[in-house]
Write a structure and sequence with these properties.
The protein has 195 residues and is of the alpha/beta class. 62% of the residues lie in helices and 11% in strands. The chain is built from eight helices and five strands; from the N terminus they run ββααβββαααααα. A hairpin with a 2-residue loop joins β1 and β2. α2 crosses α4, α4 packs across α5 and α7 runs antiparallel to α8.
Length: 195
Amino acid sequence: MKFSASQTIDGLVIVGDKGTDKIVGALDVIREFDPVRYKRLLRDVRQVLVTVLPASVAQWAETSQACELDERYLVSETTTPERVASTIVHEATHARLMRCGIGYEEKLRDRVERVCLRREIAFAARLPAGTDTARRAEATLQAMPDFSDRAMSERYLDGLRDALLYLNMPAWLVGLTLSYRRWRHRRRFARHQAA
């Protein structure tokens, strides 16, 4: 991240080399169609980071107070600024809940994700062309994935190969890395079941 380009909009730092134009467009969309949410977002989120995420298109990083967005998601031609805005709203809801003392422990995850998806749907309702964005969030809400530690770890491992190859890691090293990570994953959950 040290060598990535950065810019600041209304005090919010955007760090990344690709896809930042869509982030700027997304912030404009939030500012225009939901100014109250935009002000809240500026209080709750310090930065938006463009990175490569193995398991999702976005995540909230509490330690850095950052909304992290996957570079591949941002550079995709099918990803619109409105869709990015909806994603940022989702992650900013995580930030808001954390500020209110509601964490992301395994037993709370399903409920927390449902709240975040409902915020996405409410935001999409304000957009002139938000039907697709709302439909996508509603579909996720209807078919919620498993948010257990084990399932999340498995999704991470499933996406890690593509992420590492995207970052130009040699295929032999990707294979070695995945083998080691899967071994650690099996060992961790075997110990967890034994306890």
